[in-house]
Amino acid sequence: MTTSTLTIKGQTTIPKEIRDYLGIKPNERLAFDIKAGNVVVSRASRSIAELAGSLKSSVPRASKQAERDGARAARVHRYLVKSA
Question: What domains sit in the chain, N to C, each tagged with a CATH number?
Fold first, then answer.
């Protein structure tokens, strides 16, 4: 059995053996459940917001110049539509 000490602030260090078993890394979230009088620790599910940007796109990103040109064209189009 591995042990850990609770600080005055309510913090503790998860022993390396447990971190390795759970496959957790720094800044990952943990879930705590009470089942039959025992505390069960597991990796927390990740939210959609946390997953944002984690996948690479196969679509090439437009250049800064192309973005500026597109924004300029949109402004011109809005101006022409308003004045018509």
Answer: 1-44 (2.10.260.10)
